[in-house]
Write a structure and sequence with these properties.
Elements: E1 7-8, H1 15-33, E2 47-48, H2 76-88, E3 95-100, H3 109-117, E4 124-129, H4 141-144, E5 156-157, H5 163-167, H6 172-185, H7 198-238, H8 246-269, H9 276-291, H10 295-298, H11 301-312, H12 322-334, H13 337-361, H14 369-403, H15 407-419, H16 434-474, H17 477-484, H18 488-494, H19 499-524
Parallel strand pairs: 1-2, 3-4, 4-5
Helix pairs in contact: 7-19, 8-13, 8-18, 9-13, 9-16, 11-12, 12-14, 12-16, 13-14, 13-16, 14-16
Length: about 525
Amino acid sequence: MQNFFICLRKNSQTSFFAAMVRKEIEDETNSLTGRLKQISPVPIHLSIYSPNVVNLTLIDLPGLTKVAVEGQPESIVQEIETMVRTYVEKPNCIILAITSANRDIATSDAIKLSREVDPTGERTFGVLTKLDLMDKGTNALEVLEGRSYRLHHPWVGVVNRSQADINKNIDMIIARRREREFFASSVDYRHLAGKMGSEHLAKLLSKHLESLIKTRMPGIACLINKSIDEIEAELHQLGKPVAIDSGAHLHTILELCSAFDLVFKDHLHGGRPGGDRICSVFDNQLPHALRRLPFDRYLSLQNVRKVISEADGYQPHLIAPEHGYRRLIEVAVNYFRGPAEASVDAVHSILKELVRRSLAETQELKRFPTLQAEVSRAANEALERFREDSKTTTLRLVDMESSYITVDFFRRLLQDDEKGGIPPAAASIDRYAETHFHQIASNITSYIRMVSETLRNSIPKSVVHCQVREAKRSILDYFYVQLGQMKGNQLAALLNEDPALRERRQQCIKRLELHKSARDEIDSVSWS
């Protein structure tokens, strides 16, 4: 919607300015509606500044009509009424119901509509025009004195310029003088002359408006104060404008990074959701992955026989196939590398998601998309370093289990067999019997269960130590080092604020100034 504004600062009642205003309004109307007598809901704003006018806002609406004229659509009747209603239905609107004196008041569309939207009549002022055009011997006293149709406010009669006067460019000063002379010299209206005329109507409306403002001023003041609080809260959220020196830039950046760091730690500590998913990796994902390792297939009778035979080589084992045991255990332990790496990667993904959430929830950073992107980059690079360190450490735990086999475990198995009455060398009687390989598979399965339980407890310790703990302690430490090496222009570039936010702050500041000015204006005026 494009609105037209024009200001008349001096001599606003001269014919020159009147002609200029008329032409501008006509041109603007024609540009919107064409020259086919159409209408448009787009308002034309005309501001007039003069010491000779009262403080009023007048809305000149198109006259209500019953029939579309040539060039107008049939819908124009309803369009005009709908447009008029949008204004006169507003509770703060003062309605000027203008009716011609030379027509029956009972058929006035303006009076009919005003009664519908203002049943009590408190907002309606009746204006009777064309009193000078009534037939000789007739007058409008019945209406003006409120006998034929009473309103809450008294009727006001006015005499406007005729079309001939307009064509002759008769200015408003002369028109107002002629209007006064008409009422003063009229036999019918001279006793009402002090209560008639456009000048009296303007003063009456101005006085009514002042009275209305006094009544509603406490509510308006309350609304202004509420708006000021809301604007100040919005400005606080948007933050203060950025300082210009590099020291202040660095201080601001460090404060913003600290705000992000607090939000991130809050997620890990449980103040915000997300950190509990790390526990779920250790309590659910890791145990489930360990249980699904294919040890049943690997330690099958056929595979155990194959590995033992290959380990013996050309010279079969004598009592216990130690080389075969070690080979079977080493390969079986390597299966734990998969769950170990998966745990590291799962926690890494959770930490990345928490970084993303923390950036989104750090309101202060939203002002500076460049800095937000740099913090995101630095945090994710740190998490990547932590993941690599965690993967190295966690896989080293797995490698340790295959590097040194707990001999005491197998010694205890032999002692248990002896207590059960099984001779120690019984397994060596037939090196290739199925019972022999079953026993080997059973022994290794027991050992792998022990290793699995050990890693189930040690993998979480390694992951938390290398990833979670380091993320809490130093996720932005390397970025801080980079900041210390940056020049002033680089720091300023990080605080390149989002233009939309900057514009929004400026608008808020202007709105705040206007509201505070309005509040001061109200406070400075006595409304008693």
